[in-house]
Design goal:
By secondary structure, this protein is an all-alpha fold. The chain has twelve helices and no strands. The chain has helices at about 10-20, 30-35, 45-55, 60-65, 65-70, 75-80, 85-100, 110-125, 130-140, 140-150, 150-165, 180-185. About 20% of the residues are buried.
Length: about 190
């Protein structure tokens, strides 16, 4: 059986740290991040493995993995890290890098939610939940699943109850600084990643 030789590419770590810094190189693989993560059941690589792959310069493996898209950004991993590695932020940077490099998202519906969420904030300066879910359902194609399964009836009833309790406003709240938020979210993505 032939063994594959791993050739480390430290340029990836340098690129990632230039965006952060995330303190990725400080990881000594204690696995506290993985042991505390609530969504490891849905990951193909554990958080500590993603960090190790970044350190070893395994760009294709990291950018194509499901883990960066499944990460809930709850920051449990970051809180547990004894070396202050900013793991949740690293996962976000890897998502952005994958998008910039044109790597197809392993979880297209999570990408649809990511884009819908950012577009919603870009439009109003803050999240407007009433339009978020319908926009996501249309963008992701999940509306057909809801229609075919009949779940839309439950959702409609839930929406009616939320509205009756004042939890689903018809008009979004305005904020000061909408223009600044839009400017931040409209900045071109770095192609250096």
């Amino acid at each position: 059986m032939s063994q594959k030789t791993l050739t480390p590419d430290y340029h990836l770590l340098e690129q990632i740290e230039a965006v952060g810094p995330f303190q990725t190189g400080a990881c000594f693989q204690c696995r506290k991040c993985t042991n505390g993560c609530p969504v490891t059941f849905a990951m193909d690589l554990y958080p500590d493995e993603v960090i190790r792959m970044v350190i070893l310069g395994q760009r294709e493996t990291v950018l194509a993995c499901r883990t960066i898209w499944v990460c809930a950004a709850c920051e449990t991993c970051t809180t547990r890290c004894p070396n202050d590695v900013r793991i949740a932020e690293l996962m976000d940077a890897l998502k952005e890098m994958a998008l910039c490099k044109g790597v197809p998202a392993s979880q297209p519906r999570i990408l649809a939610l990511h884009e819908t969420f950012l577009n919603n904030i870009k439009k109003r300066g803050r999240l407007y939940e009433t339009s978020l879910l319908p926009a996501y359902l249309l963008r992701s194609g999940a509306i057909l699943d809801k229609w075919n399964s009949g779940v839309w009836r439950y959702d409609l009833n839930l929406g009616r109850r939320l509205f009756s309790k004042g939890r689903l406003p018809l008009r979004p709240k305005s904020i000061k600084g909408k223009r600044e938020v839009r400017k931040i979210l409209s900045q071109p993505k770095s192609t250096d990643l």
